[in-house]
Amino acid sequence: MQNSEALTLTAALLAAAGELTQRINEGVEARGFEGRPAYGFAFTRLAPDGATVTDLAVHLGVTKQAASQLVDELARKGYVERRPHPDDARARLVVLTERGWACTRAAEEAAAEAVRAWADLIGEGEVRMLGDRLLRIAPNGPVRPAW
Amino acid sequence: MQNSEALTLTAALLAAAGELTQRINEGVEARGFEGRPAYGFAFTRLAPDGATVTDLAVHLGVTKQAASQLVDELARKGYVERRPHPDDARARLVVLTERGWACTRAAEEAAAEAVRAWADLIGEGEVRMLGDRLLRIAPNGPVRPAW
DNA sequence: TCATATAGTCAAACAACTTGACCAATAAGG
DNA sequence: CCTTATTGGTCAAGTTGTTTGACTATATGA
């Protein structure tokens, strides 16, 4: 493989990821929720049973302070609640509210819609394969801003 | 396709893109250049004939003020030079210096190295196909931070 | 030639993140 | 059990990369 191809691949990855994230965010807002793209990825970690701030920080690839601030924001907007952790009195369990669940569903719908546009371009099977390969490459790496 | 699969795909895309960008940056630094990931993508637009600040802004998906600041930074570190534009007295052509070319080559090497690790995981053919599909999806969309 | 658009920069404001300091609850070792 | 180290979380301050707004200089077009 030529050297410059690798950079082209990276650029394509970033462009695709950026486009998708932006569309999801637009879709979520169109469904009546205000937010930023990070919300959706936070929600996937909070559902179904909640998570601690530290869990969230690892999932998002940021410091726990940053994760804590995000939770503040989500709580202020009514998407999540901090509850005492059943097993550990230091920790607090962050769980989705009813509105948080609704927003999660909206994000999933918006994502499905955006991906459907890709299926129209390269075919559903190809999209599925894309996802499969990507999952094998970066199984559960942190979901964080790309540069 | 199930709704939640689409969010999973997005997360995988982001994780993969993030990992790749980070590795490239580390590789570039290991080769003796200081910088941040955006540099490499700026370079791909500046090579081979240079570009204006506005071109760069479009390529990176940021405002031209942000692009201008990036160019300041790159110039201060000796990677690029601002030269008068041959055809338009308002514009200035940003071109790579010799050191800028060296850094570009380093970025390409680092990228090739990072992608090679992927080829070991899923096979070179699969990686090539991945790149092909992604290019069809997001042909020349802006390369910008993903969330 | 006069209005309008475009290329670029300066400056200030802002958003998301980090680093550092700290407290409370737990876990580990004698 | 005490003591010490570790872990979960927050508060506060600082940093970074970005945007918005204002402005100048050149180009374009009726």
TrEMBL record, chains A, B:
Coiled coil start-end: none
Top-level taxon of the source organism: Bacteria
Domain HTH marR-type residue range list: 6-139
GO molecular function: DNA-binding transcription factor activity
SMART domains: HTH_MARR
Pfam families: MarR_2
GO BP term, example: response to stress
Alphabetical list of PANTHER family matching this protein: MARR FAMILY REGULATORY PROTEIN, TRANSCRIPTIONAL REGULATOR, MARR FAMILY
Protein's UniProt name: MarR family transcriptional regulator
Species per Swiss-Prot/TrEMBL record: Streptomyces griseicoloratus
